[in-house]
């Protein structure tokens, strides 16, 4: 890689590298059954990204949020992982970073042990994993790792990249369109990760 700087690239997890909606929906349905609380799991999976506590707060009183969130995470580890699939281009995107001599990180709002279960189940190998961080807080991790690029599907991922002075790459595989990601300040917007290796080639050249 003479004359090039090896990239350090962070990726979000849910709806960036993996489609976790089927698994998450199944777990919220289980959670509703176990707690006797009505939860619209179809609505829940349209707004993935923030920590579980933020979603749980929409359905349970404040004093129950932490206990129910912990129950959700336990149910997810047992019942949610099998429902998740790698998004198109996910394996190739990680491989492209490695082939360029760079390092890959996953920086996600998901509970770290559950994120690892997802990665292992789908054979998505990364050099570093950091969970339970969202929005600008992702920037702290990215800065500590000297990340040069952060890839995500959520508007809050752009804030994380900005907080680390990293290039914000948006992928329109989550709740936001290419136009919305661009308007929120993403430096680069891709339809999905299948376009990432070609973009990375041009970036490191």
Number of helices: 10
Give me the CATH fold name of the largest domain. Answer: Rossmann fold
- What would the average pLDDT be, to the nearest integer? 96
Structural class: alpha/beta
The CATH superfamily title of the largest domain: HAD superfamily/HAD-like
Q: What portion of residues belong to β-strands?
A: 5-15%
Under the CATH scheme, the architecture of the largest domain is 3-Layer(aba) Sandwich
pLDDT < 50 stretches: none
* Strand order, sheet with most strands: 5-4-1-6-7-8
The major pleated sheet works out as:
6 strands, parallel
CATH class call of the largest domain: Alpha Beta
- The Cα radius of gyration reads 17 Å
Portion of residues within helices: 40-55%
Instruction: Supply the number of structural domains.
Output: 2
Alpha-carbon distance between the termini?
A: 10 Å
The count of β-strands is 8
Principal-axes geometry comes out as globular
